[in-house]
Amino acid sequence: MSTLEQNYQRVTQRLINACQQSGRQPGEVRLLAVSKTKPADMVERCYQLGQRSFGENYLQDAEAKIAALQHLNEIEWHFIGPIQSNKTRPIATHFQWVETVCRDKIARRLNDQRPDDMAPLNVLLQVNVSGEPQKAGISLADIPALAQLIEQLPRLTLRGLMCIPENTADEAALAAQFAHMKHAWQQLQQQYPQVDTLSMGMSADLELAVAQGSSEVRIGTDIFGARG
């Protein structure tokens, strides 16, 4: 068994255990394999193990992989990095999901540049739930306005919220941030019934995020190994 296969099995089992401990079904939480900086052949091997959703932060790196792996019919690409205005066209063209929308201008550009023959682009709003000045993302209070804009853009579909919580060992602080996200997400669902995704939790806080209601966890190094 390869190291990648061992890692993948370990992560998927950890996710199953987290769901069971929280009284949830494993199918309720999607595993997003963060494949940034990793070569296409490693992504393909992970796909062959059953993984379908992959997250990319760097556009140029991602475009090469997406082109190389076009033959994998069920692969799903999520853009999870910061979005510059001059990069919206290729993001709108090559990805099925964008998880880091936090500006009106970016939302409009993604909508305008999404090809007519493609399904609407699935969008998550990135929320700066910890309020750290160096982090991208809107405040919890700004969610309704950006959600309303996206709802009016025909080539985008609002699917939910995403956050990167504070980098802290204080589990109570993390739990509080995740709880704020879940509350905001539930409020969003009441207005927009298609909203079904709450993306929070990474390697260090997977169990806590699942317990607090996450529907997607983003795992990179624990699957693919340290950045190469």
Automatic annotation (TrEMBL):
CDD domains membership: PLPDE_III_Yggs_like
Coiled-coil zones: none
Domain of life: Bacteria
Sequence ranges assigned to domain Alanine racemase N-terminal in this UniProt record: 26-227
Function: Pyridoxal 5'-phosphate (PLP)-binding protein, which is involved in PLP homeostasis.
NCBIfam families: YggS family pyridoxal phosphate-dependent enzyme
Family note: Belongs to the pyridoxal phosphate-binding protein YggS/PROSC family.
Identification of the protein by name: Pyridoxal phosphate homeostasis protein
Taxonomic lineage of the native organism: Bacteria, Pseudomonadati, Pseudomonadota, Gammaproteobacteria, Oceanospirillales
